[in-house]
Design goal:
The chain has 14 helices and 22 strands. By secondary structure, the protein is α+β, with helices and mostly antiparallel strands. It folds into two domains: 3-124 and 163-300 and 446-470, no CATH class; 310-438, Alpha-Beta Plaits, CATH 3.30.70.
Length: 471
């Protein structure tokens, strides 16, 4: 084997059991990774994919049972093997409360397993006041398509997080952590941390982390579990954690297309990963080797995410099979919406305030919202979702009730017997609660990866009143 191959084969091995904590972890996958010499287990636990609600409320999308079950598998195996666990973006959103929620689950698991890990919690939630100072110094930059942030926008956010790089994780491990629970973190940083700490090449470490961020998504069969990444100074290997699965140059290289505006360049805290010259080689029937990845250091920035609660919504649902309606859905949509808006205005008057009515035709154009081509074939049936947005839940509910008879009996044309469309639920009006929105798409310029982060230690072996200490 070449010197390059020896370097990679003897590199840092990171076990990535799944793309998201709580999604399900196979014990057999973890055991295979440990048998291959894993130095650490690292995985993500969050995302913005499910929208702004979780950040605005600082809660987890995953339930406690799912998180606990996965952590039981990981903590039992890691404790026996004597290797650390790193979890990024705890509780979906990475807010401080979500980190603490995850920590409490980990403590429960530790007590159940009768083990005593030292836990480091990393926090990256930011106060609006602190960021206003940064903004006044010109240290917050907008990302397209947003404009420069205002102090009012910062103040309007219920929670703001800054995406951490690997530095806080390295600091926690160097301080003796057995388990590191991170706030909002880039998906790659939590995986790259241990290889970087152990002297791996920055380009290979970041590229391997990007490829492995979603666990088995970089394999030929993503449903067969996670991966083991082995990172050296000149490149990395990717191996599935299931003997029946394989990583191919195609499956590995295509992951640079995932959630990336540029398949060759990936911006991370403190630099840009450049894979323009990367070479992908099928090492054996299951493993792909990658060389040629380059890390280009840049001034340190952390992406900001902020979300807030907005107005309220109520929904109603009907199903339509009337062939006349189905043959002219665009016109039906426009006339029905006009009638519903007018009904609310006539019923509530000025009390209605600012409101919105939308109709979403599932089975026709609900996903895109665009009019269909004129020659489109009429569907067999459609579901029509009514959504009204108002300043309070009471108003939204009353608007829906006012619209109820129009929505369920609106004719395709006048002077015909009123139809009755199918409704699956009674009462028909379903309060949906508040609407949430992201308010920030910006980066904050920092001195390093530690400036906007905080760390707290939990020693499970100590009494609860003495367990939590801040560093």
């Amino acid at each position: 084997m070449s010197d390059t191959g020896t370097d990679i084969a003897g590199g840092t091995k990171i076990l990535v059991p799944t793309g998201m904590l709580g999604a399900g972890i196979r014990e057999s996958d973890v055991q295979l990774g440990i048998s291959r010499g894993a130095h650490a287990i690292a995985l993500d636990s969050g995302s913005t994919d499910s929208g702004p609600s979780y950040l605005a409320r600082a809660v987890s999308k995953m339930n406690k049972d799912a998180i606990r079950r996965d952590m039981e598998v990981l903590m039992a195996a890691a404790n026996k093997a004597g290797i650390p666990i790193l979890v990024g973006t705890c509780g979906t959103c990475g807010a401080d409360a979500a980190v603490d929620w995850t920590r409490d689950i980990v403590i429960e698991v530790a007590n159940a397993l009768q083990i005593r890990p030292r836990i480091a919690c990393l926090y990256s939630e930011q106060s609006a006041e602190q960021l206003k100072v940064k903004n006044s110094q010109g240290k917050i930059t907008a990302l397209p398509p947003l404009d420069a942030v205002t102090d009012d926008t910062l103040a309007a956010c219920d929670h703001i997080v800054a995406l951490m790089g690997p530095e806080p994780y390295i600091r926690a491990l160097q301080g003796g952590a057995d388990i590191v629970l991170g706030g909002r973190t880039t998906d790659t940083a939590v995986l790259a941390a241990v290889p970087l700490m152990r002297g791996a090449g920055a380009g290979p470490a970041w590229h391997a982390a990007k490829v492995s961020e979603c666990g088995g998504q970089c394999t030929e069969n993503p449903r067969l579990g996670g991966v083991l990444m082995t990172v050296g100074t000149s490149g990395f290997d990717i191996e599935p954690l299931n003997i029946e699965n394989r990583c191919s140059p195609k499956s590995v290289s295509r992951h640079m297309l995932y959630e990336s505006s540029d398949p060759c360049l990936l911006t991370e805290p403190g630099g840009v990963l450049d894979v323009t010259q990367a070479v992908y080689l099928q090492l054996d029937s299951r493993i792909t080797r990658v060389t040629g990845s380059i890390w280009r250091p840049m001034p340190y920035t952390m992406k900001l995410e902020g979300a807030s609660a907005g107005p309220y919504q109520t929904i109603m649902l009907i199903g339509i099979q009337d062939p006349e309606v189905l043959a002219d859905l665009d016109s039906f949509h426009d006339r029905l919406k006009e009638a519903l808006v007018r009904r609310i205005e006539d019923t509530l008057g000025d009390e209605a305030g600012q409101f919105d009515v939308s109709l979403r035709l599932y089975g026709w154009n609900a996903v895109s919202g665009r009019s269909m081509p004129k020659d489109s074939i009429a569907p067999h049936e459609v579901g029509v979702l009514f959504v009204v947005t108002a300043s309070s839940q009471d108003l939204a509910d009353r608007m829906a009730k006012a619209c109820n008879p129009y929505f369920f009996h609106f004719p395709i044309r006048s002077n015909i017997e009123l139809p009755s469309y199918a409704f699956p639920f009674t009462p028909a009006e379903i309060p949906r609660g508040r609407v949430y929105e992201f308010r920030l798409n910006h980066v904050v310029h920092t001195n390093d990866g530690h400036e906007l982060t905080r760390m707290a230690w939990t020693d499970v072996s100590e009494a609860p009143s003495k367990a939590f200490t801040y560093a």
